[in-house]
């Protein structure tokens, strides 16, 4: 294998490793809370939720966002340790609600029981959680997608730049070899 081929091979391997590490790190940090809740609730109750809950399970509206957790269920979750961008805190808080049979709307049915059945744990009248379209983003999903895209693009750009420099350097070396008697 020639010197140039070896250099190219090392650069490509390095760029690939960097991209893998970079993207896997940001993927771990990119949960969507509404999408995680059915799995967590099923782990607690054994029941498949009939839908993915909307952001209004915890937030003021379907846009979600930080500082907008105003629903009784959301407040109960925060009181039990739910934090921003932390799926483990989500599972832990749901577990505590379940273990303590917390009933945030006071209708006599515990939050997790209502949620597992697709009923609204914020409404005494027992309205459904499944009538609103889930809007991902209330768990900061939108804010976290951008850095992943940027970091992947940056890694790709650096890989291409390094490749161009290596080829240029090798060409320079080959030219010098030809000039040298
Ligand atoms: Ca209730
Ligand atoms: Ca209810």
General description of the model:
The chain has 181 residues and is an all-alpha fold. It has two domains: 61 residues; 107 residues, no CATH class. 58% of the residues lie in helices and 0% in strands. Helix 2 runs parallel beside helix 4 and helix 3 packs across helix 4. The longest helix has 39 residues. About 9% of the residues have low confidence. The site of one calcium ion has 10 residues, from loops. The site of one calcium ion (CA) has 7 residues, from helix 5.
Mean pLDDT: 78
The radius of gyration computed from the alpha-carbon positions, rounded to a whole number of angstroms, is 25 Å
> What is the strand tally?
0
Report the total helices.
6
Topology of this structure?
Blueprint: H1 3-28, H2 33-45, H3 72-79, H4 87-99, H5 111-116, H6 141-179
Helix pairs in contact: 1-6, 2-4, 3-4
The structure holds calcium ion (2 copies).
Residues 103, 105, 107, 109, 111, 114, 121 line the site of one calcium ion.
Keywords for this entry:
single chain; about 180 residues; mainly alpha; 6 helices; elongated; binds calcium ion
Quick take:
The protein is built from six helices and no strands. The chain is mostly helical and 181 residues long. Helix 1 (3-28) packs antiparallel against helix 6 (141-179), helix 2 runs parallel beside helix 4 (87-99) and helix 3 (72-79) packs across helix 4 (87-99).
């Amino acid at each position: 294998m020639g010197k140039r081929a070896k250099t190219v091979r090392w650069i490509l391997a390095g760029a690939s490793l960097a991209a893998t590490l970079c993207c896997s790190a940001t993927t771990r940090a990119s949960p969507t809370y509404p999408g995680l809740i059915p799995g967590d609730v099923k782990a607690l109750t054994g029941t498949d939720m009939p839908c993915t809950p909307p952001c209004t399970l915890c937030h003021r509206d379907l846009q979600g966002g930080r500082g907008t957790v105003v629903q009784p269920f959301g407040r109960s979750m925060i009181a039990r340790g739910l934090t921003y961008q932390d799926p483990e805190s989500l599972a832990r808080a749901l577990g505590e609600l379940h273990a303590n049979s917390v009933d945030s709307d006071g209708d006599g049915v515990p939050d997790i029981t209502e949620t597992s059945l697709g009923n609204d744990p914020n409404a005494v009248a027992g309205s459904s959680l499944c009538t609103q379209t889930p809007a991902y983003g209330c768990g900061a999903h939108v804010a976290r997608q951008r850095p992943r895209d940027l970091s992947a693009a940056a890694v790709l750009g650096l890989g291409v730049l390094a490749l161009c420099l290596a080829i240029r350097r090798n060409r320079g070396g080959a030219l010098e070899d030809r000039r040298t008697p």
